[in-house]
Write a structure and sequence with these properties.
Blueprint: H1 8-23, E1 25-28, E2 36-41, E3 47-51, E4 58-76, E5 86-92, E6 96-102, E7 111-113, E8 119-120, E9 124-142, E10 148-156, E11 163-164, E12 167-169, E13 172-178, E14 183-190, E15 196-200, E16 204-214, E17 222-230, E18 233-242, E19 248-250, E20 257-258, E21 262-267, E22 273-279, E23 286-294
Antiparallel strand pairs: 1-10, 2-3, 2-7, 3-10, 4-8, 4-9, 4-10, 5-6, 5-9, 11-23, 12-15, 13-14, 13-19, 14-23, 15-22, 16-20, 16-21, 16-23, 17-18, 17-22
Amino acid sequence: MLKTKIPLGLMLLFVFLTVSSFASKKLVKPYLHNKIVQVQTGDKKPTSYYTLSKKYGTKIKVNGPGRVTLYVRSIVEEGEKYSAPFTLKYTVDGKKIKVRKVKPIATSVKSKIVRKDGVISVVKKISFTIPPGKHFVDFIVLNNKEKVYSKYYFEKYPEPQWKNQPLAKKGERVILVATKKNKENAYYRISAEKGVSIKAQEKSYLRIMFRAEFKAYMFSDNTLRLHIKENGKVIKTIQISSTRAKYSIYKHGGKLVPGTLNRFYMTVPKGNHEYEIVVADKSKTALVKISFDQKRYPKKSTKHAK
């Protein structure tokens, strides 16, 4: 038998790439969940799944950017080849709500719930991407006739390399000084009448950093809304609540006081887009700074073993 020698360097590279690919994804345990069940497939070691509820969410926290993948299974009525359909609802950071209708899932011939009678389905994978930053995701199930179980994986994508986004239309340039680091940061002042515009490339992230501005007599929280427009139509409204910043001041002084920093992340869809950002509240102003990063993550998520 002919033996082929593989160069040591090539072997080490293969091992490194293999370890790196597995290190990029991990099982995520919910920090708030309902009942745990053990599912066993053949002779493999049982794995934990979490019962989804109609009322009480199963919650996970992840640090994006990355991809969340749910492994979903449903109880199947005895004698049936498929589970009943159901709806999965998840909420990101208590604001962004998504609903997925799950079609009937085939019955598994290898898997079963430990110490329980009955039939369970094969795994149905449901994936979605998470933007940069820390995020909390809440899952519930709706319209289900039988119990539904899930477990969660997270595949981490490379951290964004933020670059300043050139503006197509600029507002008044304002310099803030971070007093702790003695560092200057440039923002643009926007209002309901005067906003900023950007030309965004497809398949990129936008990071919109903004601060509410306080008038001298304002000491409580300042709540305002920002509109993101495209072709004159509002496509997104962001509501923020700021307090007065303790360690940021205007370089050239003024009658206003800057608020604390807020961040909003946005994924640019296919095609080229031009967005305008304005304040929705006519009597208020805000400071805005925009940066971008090209997406550098795989188009398809890595498959996991069932």
